[in-house]
From TrEMBL:
InterPro entries with a match to the protein in the record: Hc1 (IPR010886)
Function: Might have a role analogous to that of eukaryotic histone proteins.
Biased composition (Basic and acidic residues): 48-64
Species annotation: Polynucleobacter brandtiae
GO MF annotation list: DNA binding; structural constituent of chromatin
Sequence segments annotated as region (Disordered): 48-79
N-terminal signal peptide: none
Protein name: Uncharacterized protein
Amino acid sequence: MSHHDNLMAAFETYQAENEKFHGKGIKASAARARKALQEIAGSCKERRKEITAEKESLEGKPKGEGMSQDAARHAHIRK
């Protein structure tokens, strides 16, 4: 399963568990909603990496070539 699919599944789980917690007051659903949110956070980080790699491959430059975002930001600030 891709990171995108994991992200979407975790979000659906979060929605269902959050509704059970708020709508029906089921305390165990709070823990499951929090777990789904943690999975969403991890999948977001991994998907961001994938998107960056895909974008760089479309641009034709190998990963790691050029300035990092921090270096570019600092270079801009120094001007």
